Fold each of these.
Amino acid sequence: MPFTENIGAATLDGLAYVGGLAKLGASAARAVVLDILERRRLAYGRAMHQAMVVGIGSLPILSLITFFIGTILALQSAYELRKFGAMQFVADAVAISVSRELGPLITAILVIGRSGSSFAAELGTMKVNEEIDALETMALDPVRFLVAPKLLSMLLMMPCLTIWADFMGVVGGAVFGIAAADFTFKTYVVATLNALVLRDILTGLIKSLMFGLVITTVGCQEGLRTGLGAEEVGRSTTSAVVKSIFLVIMVDLVFTTMFYLGIG
Amino acid sequence: MDELNSADTLGSAQAPVVSIRNLHVSYGQREILHGISFDVLAGETVVILGGSGSGKSTLLRTLVGLERPTSGDVILRGRNLCAMTDQEWRELRQHIGISFQSGALFGSMSVGENVALPLLEHTQLDPATIEIMVRLKLNEVGLNGYEDYMPAQLSGGMKKRAAVARAMAMDPEILFFDEPSAGLDPIIAAGIDQLLLKLKEAFGITIIVVTHELASAFLIADRMVLLDKGRIVAVGTTAELQASTHPRVRQFLDRVAEPEISQEIDYLQMLTGEVPRPRQ
């Protein structure tokens, strides 16, 4: 029985963890709404600071990566399409793959590496340095003070970054299209616009919002659960990255299935 | 507890600001505090002494609401902490200040922002007034002109002073200090002691200090509580503790090391966790 017991225990642990994420997400979302309703100066300042770190700081590396991903996608598509003399569909393949899947996913993975890990490390260090205790003893809710601005900034910046990632992916595909598939810049843009429908963009943006929620809650939960000592901060950071990537892929699978079955 | 229990304020005419009755606190299955009881009067400085692992930090964390008691009562400003709602806790915490062992200043904020934070969050004061109050608080702790410094730019003693300024921001009635002199050189530590005395004299604040630094404790304390393995060994004034003949009090005050294990059987019992049997 130990094997089945282990599976049962792991399942319960997993459910408890996801329950903890849901509770943290709900508390942070409530705090965001209250901060907006009460027009709190400090909350705006912290959210804007986070948005700059999460969003603007990610732009250069995100641009570079998604540009190359677009080019790689075009190359891979062309490998098959040229067998059928259908190179004109390279633009369609790149546009749809990037906007529905790779744009949001690559953005999420990059943001996990930059911001999810930094959320865990920041909150973990604050826990070790008794700063979280200090907040509580000053009658300041750590979720409202620390997690809510991160959630707000992430929910604002993830869709923006995803749209930028989609754009750079298309530009990356266009470079191949113009260089090797008889496209001009104008014909590539027209082909891309004809291939895309609004729901392709929207499904990617809905996913990006969910990814933002997952990255923030996992990063912050891992940080707030950090034990004592510097080693524990390292453990929290690693754990935040691994769990975020896993949960982002799971959320991606669920939403892609939902869009496939019902909505789009 | 020894004969110094009579020095407790149980029979005092003055109502205590903090009253602890039969307090038990556990971490999981392990009980850390085993029935602690003592009172703190308004305006007095009580030092909680004890060695490592005696439970003094757990006691402090319980008094400020960071740990929940297993049983017993803690009455603070007339309200029982064990039966308070979150909203009541938030209100109470605006009347107490805590200076943590590490200072616990927020590293991403300047010293001035650290001190201003409770004022910004809990009062309707305009920014100009808050700025003046921050300067006043920093002046009180001898950190005039350090508003724009980041905590990382301060020395250990300055961090502690800044933490005191932040703890004082809301003009608390009770100040808690966790190891105020820990990790500081004797001169800086003496400066922190003088600061505590000055705050007490100037504002009449009730101060509760957790420490194991004897010199500091005897300088600042009106009364002392000596903890050992989660139990109170003695409560009394500094003179009463000095005069105590209780073996654990004497061992602590005279800085006598624990006797080394000389018998092989004792060593084996220590390794196996067995309770030593009385020797014939």
Note: Chain A has a mean pLDDT of 90.
Amino acid sequence: MGQANPRLRSLVQGKEAVTVGIVDIGIGNIGSLRNAVDSQGWDVSTVSTGEDLSRVTHLLLPGVGAFSAAMARLESTGLDTAINEFSRAGNPVMGICLGMQLLADSGTEGGVVAGLGLIPGEVRPIQRKPGFALPHVGWNEVLQVRAHPLLKGIRADVDFYFVHGYRFVAQAPQSVIAETDYCEKFPSIIGMGNVLGVQFHPEKSQVNGLRLIDNFCLWDGKC
Amino acid sequence: MLKRRIIPIELLSGGRLIKTRVFSDSRDVGDPVKSSKVYSDQDADELVLLNVDRGNRTVSDLAAILSRIAEHCFVPLTAGGGIACADDAARLFSAGADKVVLNSIAYRSPSVVTDISSRYGQQAVVASIDVRHENGNYTLYSDCGRCRETSGLEEHITSVITAGAGEILVQSIDHDGTMNGYDLELMRRVLAVSSVPVIAVAGAGNFSHLKDVLELGVAAAACGSLFNFGDNNPLRAKAFLKNYSIPLKRV
């Protein structure tokens, strides 16, 4: 027998009860992430206002660009408050790349600005080390610090795709799920309750990235 | 540890995948959407797509092809060729590009590089530099190799990094399509001044050539002819490179 049709698989596994929202603040590309979630058989919905959040069960916060510009867009659409409420209700939320950094209390890219404050910490540039080119671009390991349903079925030694110059500095050590080493060790997966953040791009990390996205969509936000 | 990347480079003209030799003699080598899917399944670490259509320096065709590729390929996509303003870059990003490649505009108006970099981040901007070996020195060319530039190699690298480029793609025009190996002297000079990752392009004809250039210290080796013609692919390239302790992605 060949591979099951993803739509059929979704009905069998009860995936019809899940709608994955992807925050679109008009900077960069959400198409790849949408295609990646869709390829796993999940329903996807774009979120560009607070009202859109009432239609979704899971939320992905992608992002490229400068921290300050992205926060300004979230504030002007009222999404900053709406995402906070959505997350306080216990719904699964995952930030990707800049989206992970936006979960922090504050960022320094483009001036010091407040973040969403969902995971204690701040964002600052990766500290340059002689012999290392920056930004950090390419495939690197994600070294697991503690078990999490997000990493179910993913071997410890596989690589994910990173492309960033800034890093998350976690204030709560227990929020670090995995770390990556480039110039210095930094958290590559963080999580607190129902809120998660990944510094790499699962939607660009081929088979292991798709598995991680599927794990997120299967997750109920409890751990 | 950060891994070295093996990148198939795909040149596009009139909606088709082509391959040139010393920036001319173009040959049709297939459909870019199908090739991209095959490369992605063969464990490519990233795909670079460049519009080299000299009659069409707009990003429209590239954006259309890119969005079809992004439907099926969950791998980093880097695209450029003809980007003249921040809006062109925006079109490519929304079509599925993770990084954009800027070449001619970096000589004409560096402020456009800065604009794109401040909007999408430095990590999303790749400066492409085409170089020809002339009278014992390296001369830079823009506009698909047609326009001779006056700035020196080191000077231009420093200026694009200052303007906001987060990666440099260096291509030797003389080595393009020759399959005789990368211009190692050129790559050495680029590595000596670049503080950002370097992607080496032009000349790969066998897997030893990839080893030679990766051992110099470039972050990535891009290949056109090597994968366009014959039975070679990224999986086989990596199987060879693993014997030389070159760190490569694990899946």
Note: The longest helix of chain A spans residues 206-218.
